[in-house]
Amino acid sequence: MGTAVVFKPTSIQRKALSLLKGGAKHILLFGGSRSGKTTVLVMAIIFRALMYAGSRHLICRYRAKDAKSSVLRETLIPWLNNTVSNNGYRYLAHESMITLYNGSEIWIGGLGDKEQADKILGHEYNTIYFNEISQISYAAVTTAYSRLAMKIKGCRNLFYYDCNPGSPLHWAYKIFVLKKTFLTSEPLEKPELYQSMILNPEDNRANLPDDYISDILDALPEKQRARFRDGLWTKTEGVIYEKFDETMIVKISELPEKFDRYAGGQDFGLNITFVKIAWVGEKIFVLDDYGAFNMTTQSFNEELSARRLLNCPDEMGLPVYCDPAGGERIQEITGGVKANNSVESGIDYINAKIERRQFFVCDRCTGVLSEIWDYCRDEAGQVVKVNDHFMDALRYAIFSDIQQGIILS
Ligand SMILES: Nc1ncnc2c1ncn2[C@@H]1O[C@H](COP(=O)(O)OP(=O)(O)OP(=O)(O)O)[C@@H](O)[C@H]1O
Ligand SMILES: [Mg+2]
């Protein structure tokens, strides 16, 4: 390693650091790409780890391998080398953990797979930093909340978050910008505990290649530019349900009184989700949804039942179309049957319904709503498999149901 570089925050990073030191418990830095969000939060964690001997801090993201490449290798290790030099810490690769000379620990991992999640959530921390929360479900984040329980004298435990902004329906926008609770949409009880700040690439010009803003960000298509250069919460390019709009979100009081039939959709995995729909003629109403993180299928089914989500009036049955890859888990779901999993045909069908304005989502369906405008394709046209848990359950419910109808008629 050459001579150590001293961390010199940009002026916006300095403001971010004072926000972190204010009274808030949850702090989100959002904004365009390469704006210095991750660097300042990682530095803040290094400072805290150094200041509070024996403290423990977690940096997590959806995929463990992204956490390792973009946070650990590109940010944390270089800045540790600059701050405490490479004699001042040890990196235990098999543990995904760094120990500092003063006994403090910094853990890094993914919330996307069970083994990793169980491992990192098996400890208590003083700081939990959710990196790139546009990819992390609200259920996963709240599951991790109980782990912010380590006690170190003088250290106030904090949650940090960062992201490139997602759609204005994303849970983080609702909580941090609209200051409403995610599940009930009530105003936050203690809004002062939730603070956010925008950082944009322009603010970090000094640390970026000369042509990065002018040649790369300015040249992006309009919607991507809004997100990645200007840090705006918008629907981006490649959104699958692009034509879905706010007029299709209905209140409970606006729902029809009677439905022709009901169906459920069930996705399995670490993010386990359920969506309930009902039909009136050609119209589809998405009535309810429920999601959890790292819950067994059996407990999840008990939750559905306790929340009366499996009930339908007039003894109308509720077939629950399940991820066909679910194997034996399907039998643990009341009414569980294998779903049709033709992804492209299912998406086309839902899109046709949206275009004909025969598709409505009740506003209590927070899971479906928080994903619907971020569910997108990559540049190669492939469906992006993050933040899609409710979208899969929705498609199983709708498309299996109509396929079933065709077979029966
Ligand atoms: N104070 C600083 N001093 C030196 N370099 C910095 C500083 N802040 C950020 N950088 C550099 O700027 C680049 C972008 O920073 P960073 O990765 O923190 O941005 P980001 O907002 O998290 O980006 P992304 O949206 O891509 O996640 C990196 O190369 C980082 O090393
Ligand atoms: Mg970052």
Give a quick rundown of the structure.
It is built from twelve helices and 15 strands. With 409 residues, the protein is of the alpha/beta class. The protein has two domains: 218 residues, 3-Layer(aba) Sandwich (Rossmann fold); 163 residues, Nucleotidyltransferase, domain 5, CATH 3.30.420.280.
Molecular structure report:
The protein has 409 residues and is α/β, with parallel strands linked by helices. The chain has two domains: 11-228, 3-Layer(aba) Sandwich (Rossmann fold); 246-408, Nucleotidyltransferase, domain 5, CATH 3.30.420. Helices cover 32% and strands 20% of the residues. α1 (11-21) packs across α2, α10 crosses α12 (389-408) and α11 (366-372) crosses α12 (389-408). Bound molecules: adenosine-5'-triphosphate and magnesium ion.
Arrangement of strands in the largest sheet: 3-4-5-2-6-7-1-8
| Straight-line distance between termini | 72 Å
- CATH class group of the largest domain: Alpha Beta
Report the CATH topology name of the largest domain: Rossmann fold
How much helix, percentage-wise, in residues? Answer: 25-40%
Uncertain ranges = none
Helix segment tally: 12
Please name the CATH architecture of the largest domain. 3-Layer(aba) Sandwich
Largest sheet geometry: 8 strands, mixed
Bound compounds, each kind once, are: adenosine-5'-triphosphate, magnesium ion
Mean of pLDDT: 94
Class inferred from helices and paired strands: alpha/beta
Beta-strand portion reads 15-25%
Rounded Rg: 23 Å
Q: What is the element string, with H for helices and E for strands? A: HEHEHEEEHEHEHEHHEEEEHEEHEHH
Shape: globular
